[in-house]
Amino acid sequence: MLKPFVGKLNEISCLEFWKEVSKRFIPATAKYKFNTCTDGNKQNLSALQIAFQNGTVNYSKVKKIRNGDIVIGMINKCILGNMPKEEIGIRHIDGFCARLRERVSRYCRKSKTFSKKKTPFYLHLFKKVELERCFYRLLSVILVVTLLYLCYHLLIHYYQPYIK
User: Fold this and answer.
1) Under DSSP, is residue 114 helix (H, G, I), strand (E, B) or coil?
2) CA neighbours closer than 13 Å in the CB half-sphere of residue 3
3) What's the pLDDT at 74?
4) Mean pLDDT of 66-80
5) Calpha distance 142→146 (Å, rounded)
6) How many CB atoms lie within 10 A of CB 33?
C-alpha cells in the first residue's frame, strides 16, 4: 500500500511518489504503457519522465474550468504518449472523494443538498434507526409506567371508601 502523502507538491515529493508507484507496478514497456491522469501539476511531468523509462508512460491532464466553486467544463489533454481521449478522466477519483465526504458526516454536509448539522459527537456513534428504536422503546416504557400509576391511584380512590 502506498503511504499517504500530506504536504506540498514540489519536485522532490512528486519524484518520491512516482518512484514509489513505479516500484509497485509491473514494469511498464513500450507495448504495455503505464496510464495516468492528474490535474496537471507541472511537477508530475518531470517526475514521471525520471521515474519511468522513456516511451513507457501515457500521461494526461484534466483541467477543470470553474465559475466560482462550480465546475462548468473540463479540458482533457494528452501530455505524454498517446492515451485515447475517452480514457482521459479523473471522474472515478472525484466520485470516490465525494462519496467519502458524504460518509464522514461529522465533518461535512449530510449530502450534496443539505447543510451541515451541528450534532454532538456521541450521536454519530449510533445509527439513526437504532436511536429511533431506543427512543420509541423508552416512550413505550414511560407510557406503561404512567398507565399503571394512574390505574393504581384510580383504584385506591375508588375502593378507599370500602376499605374502612
Assistant:
1) coil
2) 8
3) 83
4) 85
5) 6
6) 18
**Angle (CA) 47 87 60, round 5°:** 25
**DSSP code, position 106:** T
For cell 503505464, the residue is 34
User: Rg of the chain over CA atoms, in angstroms?
Assistant: 31
| Contacts with 113 (C-beta within 8 Å, 6 or more apart), sequence order | none
> 162 is written with which cell numbers?
370500602
Instruction: State how far the alpha carbon of 25 is from the alpha carbons of 12, 29, 50, 79, 98, in Å.
Output: 21, 12, 16, 21, 27
Provide the grid cell at 116: 451541515
C-alpha–C-alpha distance, residues 32 and 92, integer Å: 22
Cell numbers found for residue 14:
512528486
Amino acid at 157: H
Concatenate the DSSP letters of all residues of 25-75 into one string: SPPP-SSSPEEEEES--HHHHHHHHHHS-TT-EEEEEEEEEEETTEEEEEE
Percent of the chain with pLDDT over 70: 74
95 φψ region: left (φ > 0), alpha (ψ -120 to 50), beta (else): alpha
